[in-house]
Amino acid sequence: MEMVSITDVDTWNCLSREEEQRWREIRNMESWEYSESCSNCNKRQHQIVKAPQHIEVEVWCWTISCYACKKTTPVIWTNGESSRFIRESIRPNTFENLPCAIEQEYPLFKKGFKKTKNVEEHGNTCVHCGAYQGDWFVWHEYLEIAYEPESVSESKIILVALTEYEQLYYANPKQLFRMHHPRKGAYRDLCPDCYDLYKKKKI
């Protein structure tokens, strides 16, 4: 896990106690996880940071042969690792507002009925015949292209707004310091400041 400076905490939007409890429920996380604190001063080793209101997502565009009319048509997919905050791989339908944000930039990515899923949602369509290009096939193309990103014909950064629920769901624990574990004495876990006091025999 990335360790950050304690001075950065002031710039974060950390979860309140109630939000953190809800975050744990959503994530099926035990109360002890990321709750470690210094046994002398009670300073927490981690802070849970709410996801930002807006995140940047990179979208890749390249061409394939349409399965229906066989003509060359552009398709898009999200660069799954493009967000600096979201740890999970990002797909075009990961966030509630992302499909419409993509459609504004790429009208070929539009809402339609997907027979394989029996749902109506956004997906790639042929610019010639309008046929839906299956997510599975486009995704596998993306996996191949990920090893050769220079083959992408275009990439764009799209700003997408997260919902309140998404900001909570994608909250991240940030480690503020490394905990010290003295072999002797009454203190099991000490933050760096308290560990310095311990070494000087001041606690």
Keywords:
single chain; 203 residues; alpha+beta; 2 domains; 3-stranded antiparallel beta sheet; 25% strand
Summarize the structure.
This protein has five helices and eight strands, in the order αβββαβββαβαβα.
Tell me the total number of β-strands: 8
Number of helices: 5
Rounded Rg: 23 Å
Major sheet: order of its strands? 3-2-7
Shape: elongated
- Helix percent band: 10-25%
Note poorly predicted spans.
Answer: 4-8
Q: How many strands, what sense, and barrel or not for the largest sheet?
A: 3 strands, antiparallel
Oligomer: single chain
Beta-strand content: 15-25%
Provide mean pLDDT, rounded: 91
When the domains are counted, the total is: 2
Order of helices and strands: HEEEHEEEHEHEH
Class derived from helix and strand content: alpha+beta
Distance between the termini: 30 Å
Describe this structure in words.
The chain has about 200 residues and is α+β, with helices and mostly antiparallel strands. The protein has 2 domains: about 70 residues, no CATH class; about 110 residues, no CATH class. About 20% of the residues lie in helices and about 25% in strands. It has 5 helices and 8 strands. Strand 2 and strand 3 form a beta hairpin. The longest helix has 11 residues. It is elongated and about 80 Å long. The two termini are about 30 Å apart. About 0% of the residues have low confidence.
